Fold this protein.
Amino acid sequence: MFDDSDFNFSIFTLPLADNINSSIYSEFSILNTRNNVKRTHLFNGRYENIYIEKSSIPTIIPILDFAKTCAQEILNTSDSLDSGYWFNDMPPGSVTIPHTHDDDDELLSGAYYIKVPKNSGDLILTKDGLNKTITPLEGQLILFKPDCLHEVTKNNCDSNRLSVGINFGTKRT
């Protein structure tokens, strides 16, 4: 784990991520072509959030479990956490505009990186007017506070980048 307390983010690496990532990317590529997939946040002709249920893409489960364990570590809790996730498929030329995830009861937000071609965009975190640029790697999970302003720079390569956005909140009974 890498922790940057100045910017309040942590980076974790999923062991043996290559096989899982390859399977997820293949499954996602097929499922994303279907009309019944929920998509939201249309910006510049691209839906930033693509929702595919765990039952349709079960290879995502180890990643979500890993992310939950990491979130519990950061939040210093053994309590159950609720989570929501979505895929972010960034074709060449795409960006993700600056935004936060502090709309509801989120305690922690982040991204897990499935496919990250060279020059496919950096994650920029902003705090108190200062920017921290992170070039993510496949298999990395980056977690940060939900009120952290963040964006992704332009995908300057010729293939898509795929990540999973995740929010964690308290489990409701």
In short: The chain has a mean pLDDT of 91. The first strand starts at residue 2 and ends at 4. The domain at 2-170 is CATH 2.60.120.620 (Jelly Rolls).
